[in-house]
Amino acid sequence: MTARTIAVSGSASGIGRALAALLRGQGDRVIGVDLRDADVTADLSVPEGRSRAVAETLEICGGVLDAVVAGAGVSHFTDLTVKVNYFGAVALLDGLRPALARAGNPRAAVVGSISGTQPVDDAVVRACLDGDEPAALRAAAKVVEAGAGHTLYPSSKAAVARWLRRACVTPEWAGRGIPLNAVAPGVVRTPMSAALFEDERMLKAMNDAVPMPLNGYADPEVIAEALRWLVAPANTHMTGQIVYVDGGAEATLRGPEVF
Questions:
Q1: What distance in Å separates the CA atoms of residue 110 and residue 85, rounded to the nearest whole number?
Q2: d(C-alpha 118, C-alpha 179), whole Å
Q3: pLDDT at 12 (0 to 100)
Q4: Which candidate, 50, 34, 36, places its Cα nearest to that of 92?
Q5: Any keyword Oxidoreductase (predicted)?
Q6: What percent of the chain has pLDDT over 70?
Q7: Could you tell me the CATH number of the domain that includes residue 68?
Q8: So what's the pLDDT on residue 195?
Q9: Domain around 133
């Protein structure tokens, strides 16, 4: 197999780190993007950091990129979650799309979440999809002020899933032969979720919210394997799909009527 060049954000920990290791293990060149310990160090929560991430990645890859995985994410009860999970991911994917279009078998993927199926703040989601970051942050501030900051993570993940579904069939993506998909994990043992396992009350709430009858909690490598296939040349026709790698949580919560 010919080595490919793949950009992975969130490459310093968790799912992104696991994916980078898998890709490098099969001989691919990975351009890691993260706040630290990466080929490109950039803050995806701010426009300047997003521009830097795109520019430096393009410089390293020479303007041609085989795949991009937007894996960076946070789960704070603040507007940082919206900044990184939605606007950071979309800016990276859109910014690197021209480099993907120059490759022979380009692919793109996002790390979503089972939480995207949970209650969201409609104003936050709407502003995200309108591409209006100031409005999204104002809406997020109101959510935090109302004591509902916990809804910002599902709102950010629902918004990016809806953006993906809308963008994937456009001339800019499907028209250029670029499949665009997401993996939506259930509970994954990563540094981001570690605190939840240390608090019995939070652990119970998490288990109630995300029941995983098939094999329980996942290690990051499980999610990375699904992402590896989504960005592989073998994936020629799957696009716009949110692939739930969640131990059966989505099927349990939404039932057989939703598919």
A1: 10
A2: 26
A3: 97
A4: 50
A5: yes
A6: 100
A7: 3.40.50.720
A8: 76
A9: 5-244
Three-class SS state of 124: helix
How far is C-alpha 147 from the geometric centre of its chain's CA atoms? 25
Say how many C-beta atoms besides its own lie within 10 A of residue 35's C-beta.
16
Residue-level length of the chain: 259
Query: What phi, psi does 183 have (nearest 5°)?
Result: -105, 130
121 within domain boundaries: yes
Whether the per-residue pLDDT at 192 is higher than 80: the answer is no
Is residue 259, in this structure, part of any structural domain at all? no
H or E element in which residue 194 lies: helix 194-198
pLDDT digits (tens, 9 = 90+) for 85-111: 999 999 999 999 999 999 999 999 999
Model-level pTM? 0.94
Question: What is the per-residue pLDDT for 1?
Answer: 65
For residues 169 and 242, what is the distance between their CA atoms, to the nearest angstrom?
Answer: 14
Residues assigned a catalytic role: 153
| DSSP category for residue 216 | S
The answer as to whether 252 is a domain residue is: no
Establish if 257 belongs to a structural domain. Answer: no
Containing 1, the helix (H) or strand (E) segment is none
Burial zone of 44 (CB within 10 Å; 0-12 exposed, 13-18 middle, 19+ buried): buried
Nearest to 120 by CA among 63, 159, 78, 66: 159
If one counts the domains in the chain, the total is: 1
Nearest to 133 by CA among 173, 80, 93: 80
- What is the DSSP-derived secondary structure letter of residue 105? S
pLDDT at 212: 92
The answer to whether 7 and 58 are in contact (CB under 8 A) is no
Provide φ and ψ at 67, rounded to 5°.
-160, 155
